[in-house]
Amino acid sequence: MTGGDGVPLTVGIDVGGTNIRASVVDGAGEVLDTVTAPTPHSARALEDGLARAVRELCQRHPIGAVGLAVAGFVDEDRATVRFAPHLPWEDAPVAQRLTDRLELPVILEHDANAALWAEYRFGAAAGGHNVVLVAIGTGIGAALLIGGQLYRGSYGVAPELGHLQVVPQGRACACGKRGCWERYCSGTALVDTALEMLATDPGRSTVLAREARRDPGSLTGRRIAGAAQDGDPLAIEVMAEFARWLGLGLAFVSDIFDPDLIVVAGGVSSSAPLFLDDARDHYAASITGARHRRLSRIRVAQLGEAAGMIGAAELARAALVGSTNGRPAPAHR
Fold it and tell me: Model's pTM, two decimal places?
């Protein structure tokens, strides 16, 4: 079950809370075919939908294995979904269930790990050795590459960098704590910061203030970034505050892991020209011993929304053949 170059074709699936996206990926990381479907709300219906998507792709391509990128806790064997906040699985042996149904090898992977592996093999993290990926969207997802291998921790759930506490007794977080990094550095945080600033002085941004009064739900991170691009003074200040928290957080992360490369991914990364240079400055000013050490390179991810699917497919291929371009399959813990 190989492509024209003899390398197995595999399917990578991004299992999101809203949609399933399944893609056939070749050995060069190219997406050859994709199917999408709404995400069902029960475990059985979700597994039915995943099986249906893979079978549709199998009708058009010779598929050797399947990888699922899941936003949630995946066990150390990449077989069981321990918990996924937006999916109907809990302690569910998803890999075995789908393997039995499809008669194909199936592996699971945390979505940020899958995205980092894709960027390492084919994108912005190529050539990195110790790499941190920070995926900034509604919250913060993160992944670590140590010595060229994914680091999953002892039980498969590392790292939860978005829930490092940066402000004691700060903004409440859905995780149950207060002051988590993602509450100040995410798409959601952009909105919260804007609303706080507007509450203090509504006249600072006529456009955003009017929109917030009319419909607070219309104020999104994307809208704020667009307003900043258009020169709105309050939106520019919000982006500056976001850049400060990004730089501070990356300094914390670098003090712990000392990576040679940091990749900024996720939906907010599309607005990187508005904040990344400032974030680099805050990072350099905040890291311990900055004058006496080499600083991490900070890059924007290159593969966009397809990264999770590409990475999951590539990890499935590695598990299938036992190596990736001569390197052992990633299993570092």
Answer: 0.91
